[in-house]
Amino acid sequence: MHYMKKKRVMGTLGIAAALMLLAGCEERNMQNRTEQEEPDAVSQLQQDIEVEGLSDEISLDGSEESELQEQSEQQKQSEEPKPAEGPKQLSDEVSDNQMQDKLDADRIIEEQSFQVELNDWGEVRFVSYEPDPSGRDSHEDVSFYLMKDDEILYQFPYIGADHSSGYGLYWDVKFVMFTDTNADEKEDVVIGAEYMTGAGPQGAIPHTVVRIYEDNGNYFTYNEGISDKINEYLPWESNVLAKDVKRLIQLTNGNEPLTDYESYTGKWCVGPGYVAAYEDPMPTSRNELTCSIINGNEFSGSLFTEQGITERIASVDDIVGTIQNGELFFEYTDDGWGGTGTLHIMFLPNQINVEVLDHQMAEENAIGYGISGSYEMTIRE
Description:
Blueprint: H1 2-22, H2 30-51, H3 63-79, E1 114-118, E2 122-129, E3 143-148, E4 151-155, E5 169-179, E6 188-196, E7 207-215, E8 220-222, H4 224-233, H5 242-253, E9 266-270, H6 274-279, E10 286-294, E11 298-306, E12 313-322, E13 327-332, E14 340-348, E15 351-360, E16 374-380
Antiparallel strand pairs: 1-2, 2-3, 3-4, 5-6, 6-7, 7-8, 9-10, 9-16, 10-11, 11-12, 13-14, 14-15, 15-16
Helix pairs in contact: 1-2, 4-5
């Protein structure tokens, strides 16, 4: 529009020049006279245009065109998309994570968040962060962060697709442990999280799933292989403790036999089975081994059984001995019913088996009850 009006003005100037030629201006002085008179003619012409109401739409010195060009450039710049200022990305390991600028304090699991001195990260706070309580994504997994002065330094990668775990609905964080899992002299992060599947007889029983994150300097890698091996050892109903997992890591990665058995200390029992644990259709037998282990392999404890229907009880007390190569043999002289025999106690990666050898019932034991057979102690209470 402004260009057409500029042409209109220039056309008028041309007519004025032609009239001056017809008035008898000499050709030799035409250029000088035109240069002298042009300002007046232009001035007069601009006044005429102002009378017509056009002076607000044109500019003879080009200032308006320059201003319009500048405005156009500014408009283009304002329309160009600006790069998003996303949260700090520290490594490719977390490129698919939901990194955030700030955590919701109400979602921090305080009892599983710790101040730690962690390798090259220095003094940091490890934070366990529960899923969105609104439940918009029911399969959202628990997440974990390293923070310093309320700033997020790192988010640990999720172990499943779409920020889920792949193990069911998140229930709780049971433990967090910092230990060297791969003999590189760096403390790695070992987490025990609980999930429920909601399907099948055992679906409402929270079960522990272990995940191991290895420190690679400025990021952590989820070691799926070792984590899966350890999870295969964990019974569904078992009360899994951090010391159990530490022992399993040693057994899984170690090339030498286990010599420190103290992590087995506690009460172990025979699992009731999935159906019994969920429906409890009838009284179940109690079979328990209570043990205390000190100085690496010095054992003391007792074996107790109770028949579910009759409630008959048998036991071997004051079991003592030294564990060697994962085994302990103890000869008993009375199981509460006068029976004798030998207990063969075997310490497996995540359970204790008790086998009764050479069992002899007392002659006066007309019922025939007592300590006999074998017991697979898979559940830690």
